[in-house]
């Protein structure tokens, strides 16, 4: 919903940010005909990765090159085809793909497709990069976080230290919450997929809901509690399997 009163729930701080739909600015990018980008998280705000909401208004094609940056795409709606070499993968809602930095990919998207695009400078643990990885959220196993059955985590990527980050879906039953206020060197890029609640970031408490994005910088105190009558879910990225002094 557009705001004509000068108000917004979006907040940008030195170590965190809440980005909400009424403040989104859509821009175009070269080579992406019929697509608009909302860059919600970028290095300009202090992050070491970028996160964009991509929305299409026409069928077209684009390319993600092998530039030393890894990419992760999570489809919210519509259809997206990922072409790598002689193979292709057709993605629909809650399908995802990890593209290693050594691999160029062609994309073909249909009208009214929405997806999230993360990109970051990949830090390899050796001389080999991970392979292309494609999946659907429903196919990934779910486990209780620290034994709490009301809080489930799905790891979308394989639990292999060759990956330098994690992409997880967290599911909270109504009233569930994180066990404690976390603080760590890893940073996060988060999108609320369903439901909502209250997120604590540093000393601030934010009401959050479906469609909101959050950036959590290194060491920011963070906590979430789910509210309402339905489950809350969010997609979350964190740099992982690497030392804080790597890269």
Automatic annotation (TrEMBL):
InterPro entries: Cupin_2 (IPR013096), RmlC-like_jellyroll (IPR014710), RmlC_Cupin_sf (IPR011051), UGHY (IPR017627), UGlyAH_cupin_C (IPR044697)
Record key words, sorted: Hydrolase
Pfam families: Cupin_2
UniProt domain Cupin type-2: residue ranges: 169-235
Entry's Gene Ontology molecular function annotations: ureidoglycine aminohydrolase activity
Transmembrane segments: none
Enzyme Commission number, as recorded: 3.5.3.26
Domain of life: Bacteria
Stated name of the protein: (S)-ureidoglycine aminohydrolase
Native species: Rhizobium puerariae
Protein's gene: allE
